Amino acid sequence: MENSSPVILAIDQGSGSTKTLAIDLKGQVLDQFEEKISTTFPKPGWVEQDPQEIWQSTINASKKITKQYKIAAVGLSVQRESILIWDRKTGEALTPVITWQDRRASELAELQSPNSLRVKEISGLQLDPMFSALKVQWLLENYNFGGADVCIGTIDSWIAFNLGAGHIIEVGSASRTQLLDIESGNWSEELLNIFKIQRSSLPKVCGSDEKHMCTNMRALGLDNQVPLSGIMGDSHAALFAHQGWRLGNFKATLGTGTSIMGATEHNAQTIAWSVSGKITRAAEANILSTGSTLLWLAELFDTAPDELAKLAEESTQHVQFVPAFNGLGAPWWDRQAQAIITGFTRGSSRADLAAAALRSTAAQINDVLEDFSKSSIVINTLNADGGGVRNSYLMQLLSDLSGKEIKSSKLAELSAFGAAMVAALGAKLLSISEIESINLEYDQYKPTLTEKMRQENLLIWRRALSASRVKN
Question: Contact, 432 vs 418, CB < 8 A?
Fold first, then answer.
């Protein structure tokens, strides 16, 4: 299928699959494909993926687009914090991908706790095994690389390296490694010393809209003259798609976990992107288990996650479920918290558990919003995207428990869309004003609970949350 107007190949390499979209300059999604990828759990708390499988899924999914459309530029969005090490000379992966969900570095986190305040001051991030730094330290201490010239990199680094762009990392992804100085946008020598990492093994930090002419675009079925001109972490790309450069315009991406993020001029935890040489910083909070909670329960019930909402509508009891499978993320960052169910009686049903699992997602997001409010971070609009937006029951729960109107994107693949828009900027195919004229469609959800009812619901959740935590 030949298209006369420029088409962007958007690659979204996520935790469960690699998706590719063909998107034109009017913001229309012309086509999309998905290649599932596997995840392994070798030990409790360990979560790994195969680097070669990720690269091959990128090739396979991309070729389904490139054989049909004439591509003008490539945009890439990726799962963040996941890390691996490979041989610079051979390109061979020397470790598995240690994913963002992996908790094997928890003991290292305890050992590094005296440095936690300084780590947060420089990086903006709470010291936690979710971020890449502790994972890299663990790999360096537990693998023997035999004197190889090693490259340490995130998923965007790995894909870019295989495309022949060199050893690079986009600045937003770099900020999620916990090794970057959030103010300067450069690697921090102090943080590298804390985590015992050599700077020479790290990639070059690049802007989000930087134009890379690669030597191996043919792997994707493209000519080498097609630039890789947009790279972002998936959550950052979703915020960009929501036109998140407007202050107060926040988003919640509901995937395996949930990222709540918005541009801010103070109390930033991350770099959102660098476009036209200007860094935009953001407040962000990461909830560890939302979509993965629903997947776990669906597997337990031998059903599909989307079916849980139908089941939940039959619920008659106020069961609470705190999904602290690997501790709690934002805003608590409690590695000792335990997954619990409260309010469960002999008369409780599958429907009550389904409702509790869905409620836990909405309640955790509200906890983050309340924490942002304490830091004087103003949220004017809360947009929602990701797989969770297909669930209208969940979206209404989120509106009811947060007391906010929710704008839910009708296009679930906002990360890919954002990457495409950044790629169009980098390739000089679109300007910011032209992107602002593209109107995405949203469903809107308004609160149906009174404030008294909302607070009563939240009180029951907070009691369950308190019970799940060893340190209160």
Answer: no
Host H or E run for residue 466: helix 451-468
Token pair, residue 175, equals 């900020």
Structure tokens at 26: 């009017």
Contacts of 428 (CB under 8 A, 6+ apart): none
- Which three-class secondary structure state does DSSP give residue 273? strand
Helix (H, G, I), strand (E, B) or coil at 322: strand
Residue among 416, 390, 410 at smallest CA distance from 22: 416
Token output for 324? 């602290």
Please give the domain boundaries of the chain with CATH numbers for all domains: 7-232 (3.30.420.40)
Q: Name the residue among 349, 230, 332, 347 with its Cα closest to residue 285.
A: 332
Closest CA to 336 of 41, 81, 106, 126: 106
For 345-398, how does the pLDDT look when each residue is reduced to its tens digit (9 = 90+)? Answer: 888 888 889 888 899 999 999 999 999 888 878 888 889 988 888 888 999 999
SS3 76: strand
N-to-C CA span, the chain = 59
Q: Cα(212)–Cα(74) distance, rounded to whole angstroms?
A: 10
Amino acid present at 330:
A
How distant is the alpha carbon of residue 257 from its chain centre? 8
Instruction: Return the SS3 of 60.
Output: helix
Q: Tell me: the pLDDT tens digits for 8-25?
A: 999 999 988 999 999 999
Neighbours of 82 (CB within 10 A): 27
Contact present, 180 and 186 (Cβ < 8 Å): yes
| H-helix segments, 37-83 | 51-66
Q: For 266, what's the count of Cα atoms within 13 Å in the CB-facing half-sphere? A: 7
In this prediction the pTM is 0.87
- Of 325, 326, 329, 312, give the one whose Cα is nearest residue 364: 329
CA 237 vs CA 256, 270, 430: distances in Å: 16, 13, 16
Q: Quick one: which of 470, 457, 469, 465 has its CA closest to 321?
A: 465
144 vs 141: CA distance, rounded Å: 8
Residue 167, SS3 per DSSP: coil
With 0-12 / 13-18 / 19 or more C-beta atoms within 10 angstroms meaning exposed / middle / buried, residue 450 is exposed
Residues 454, 403 contacting (CB under 8 angstroms): yes
Cα distance between residue 370 and residue 382, in whole Å: 13
Beta carbons within 10 angstroms of residue 370's beta carbon:
12
